[in-house]
Amino acid sequence: MKKLLEIKDLSAGYENQVVLENVSLDIFSNDFIGVIGPNGGGKTTLIKTILGLIKPISGEVNLLINKTNVGYLPQVNQIDKRFPISVFDVVRSGKANTALFSSFHKNRQEKEKAELLLQEMGISHLRNKSIGELSGGQMQRVFLCRALMNEPELLVLDEPSTYVDNNFEGELYLKLKELNDRMAILLISHDVGTISFFVKTIACVNRNLHHHPSNIISEEQLASYNCPLQIITHGNIPHTVLKLHDEHEHHGHHH
Amino acid sequence: MDIIIELFSYDFFVNAFLASLLAAISCGIVGTYIVSRRIVFISGGITHASFGGIGMGYYLGINPLVGAGIFSILSGMGIQLFSSKGKVREDSSIAIWWSLGMAIGIIFVYLTPGYAPNLMSYLFGSILTVSTGEIWLMLALAIIIILFFTLFYRTILYIAFDEDFAKTSDLPVGLFNYLLMILISLTIVLNIRVVGIILILSLLTIPQATANLFTRDFGRMMFYSVGFAFLASFIGLLVSYFADIPSGATIIFTQVVIFGLVKLIKAF
């Protein structure tokens, strides 16, 4: 078990606003961590700090692997969907080559890798489409391909299940479970119920971070971690794994 | 047809023809980057800020285009600096530089004793009076742009598409942002004589809009944009010559007509 990342007493945020405080977390090569927490609680800030996109205010973020060995799937609403770029080019951008003339190199390996990933995700037929023509699920598959281009040791995903159909959501999580055999995964999600089927451990982020050592977490524990359920979910998601006797009674009253 | 061929025996017309070709190359390529990255408004700010340099050029008795070059590069940097370090909202930062440049230009032109020759040609363009020296500069710029965009095609594309992801891939994002900002500034300044400060934004956006009707690929969009920009500039040049109307405005009008026609044909 290799340690990939260590975060020590991290504080981070924007301008004068501290979003994260006293956060410590270690990530090992076989981890599959589900990151949950309310909107504005600092989930995205945490991964942007890990990726080096935001500088910590204090504390340390030590990436023990090469920066390019971290695969990243950003929130889909951070992407300009009307940008003139083809699916194939988006996937290839996952292995950016800064060398002069790199546009002319035959880059056979790079192209083969991209083709292979597209095949694996079942979207080879979309390779020449522009990204604006894709559905939400197709787009997430493309961005997952891009994140995997470098054979990352750590895969970081920010809300990959937004704007996708339930069908793809299940497929995606199964795929991630499979990928977890060869890489660590850090997965941000709103959907605490569904992800707990797939992740190994859960991290609750709401200004602080509590790393819960298993994938089963009760409502009481969530509350004690400063992440009560009602502020994480938005009401209509079935929380199958959680012990939700209170909530069931609550539903009963409505029917 | 003969009359068009005859036109090419005049030096001023050959220059105008070359200017429209070179303008199409630089504006077609750089404009594709501007439109794809949605920095049209920043480019508008740089364009108008360069008027400050034109006024300064008149006042100091140097070539107004040199002043415009200095002002446009400074304003490009200034806009980025204001919004990233100065915590000014980007659109406000653009508006500040935009109007500051225009104000400085107006004050300098007013302070310049006597008459400011060719002032209108800087504002509205005058492709028929482009000098051979300016053609050489435009040629140099076109070559630099072609080289830069060919050598670094993928780096530019990846940074423009997803800057954060490019940073995580260790691409030199900051460096490229500044280099491209300088290329945008130079493109604007060297094409001021073709269509003028007021109209130049159109050369950076309308051919791209037309090209975008045919392709959603960054590389192809650059080629098509160059083609449409050249077509419109040349037709506009001829029309303005024979109808004896201002060239800059005619070129822009032709751009819009071509865009409208293509859009109409595509609709059926």
Fraction in beta strands of chain B = under 5%
Instruction: Using the coordinates above, name the CATH class of chain B.
Output: Mainly Alpha
Count of domains of chain A? 2
User: In terms of per-residue confidence, which ranges of chain A show pLDDT below 50 for 5 or more consecutive residues?
Assistant: 234-255
Count all strands of chain B and give the number: 0
Can you write the helix and strand succession of chain B as a string? Answer: HHHHHHHHHHHHHH
Low-confidence spans of chain B: none
The CATH superfamily of the largest domain in chain A is P-loop containing nucleotide triphosphate hydrolases
* Cα gyration radius of chain A (Å): 19 Å
> What's the CATH first level of the largest domain in chain A?
Alpha Beta
Instruction: Note the total helix count of chain B.
Output: 14
Structural class of chain A: alpha/beta
Question: Architecture of the largest domain in chain A, CATH level 2?
Answer: 3-Layer(aba) Sandwich
The strand order across the widest sheet of chain A is 5-6-7-3-8-9
